[in-house]
Amino acid sequence: MDTPPLAQKAYSHVGHKNGVRDQDDEDYWKELQEFFKNGEFPSGLVTDKARIHFRKRAHRFFLQHNQLWLAPKKNPDRLPRKVIEEQSRRQELIAAAHNKCGHRGRDATY
């Protein structure tokens, strides 16, 4: 008995590697930049509901000197975080921070 392959949406509840969302790709960041530069929604957003969803996701971001930044949620004393648009570069930075900031290995003792 052959089972048909499951649709991609069947796995929407499964966690993503490193917490990356489906929309977290370079195209999404470019759409955000264009939205902040021109004030125009991406061409693929034709319904009001889609535009509202996009605006809600974009509300904490801002553009400064052609660089996207993420504003802090509640504490205005915290610094904004720079958005690293390229996933491969983001992975490199995460690995470097992990390995160079006191990583002792799996059998470390005090």
Give an account of the 3D structure.
The protein has 110 residues and is of the alpha+beta class. The chain has one domain (24-100). It contains 3 helices and 3 strands; from the N terminus they run H-H-E-E-E-H. A 3-stranded antiparallel beta sheet has the order 1-2-3, with helices on one face. The model is unreliable at 6-16 (pLDDT under 50).
Short account of what is shown:
This protein is of the alpha+beta class. About 10% of the residues have low confidence. It contains three helices and three strands, in the order H-H-E-E-E-H.
Name the features.
single chain, 110 residues, alpha+beta, three-stranded antiparallel sheet, 35% helix, elongated
pLDDT under 50 segments (min length 5)?
6-16
Count of DSSP H/I helices: 3
Shape: elongated
The arrangement of helices and strands along the chain is HHEEEH
The rounded distance between the terminal residues' Cα atoms is 56 Å
Question: Going across the major beta sheet, what is the strand order?
Answer: 1-2-3
- Give the strand tally: 3
Average of the residue pLDDT scores: 80
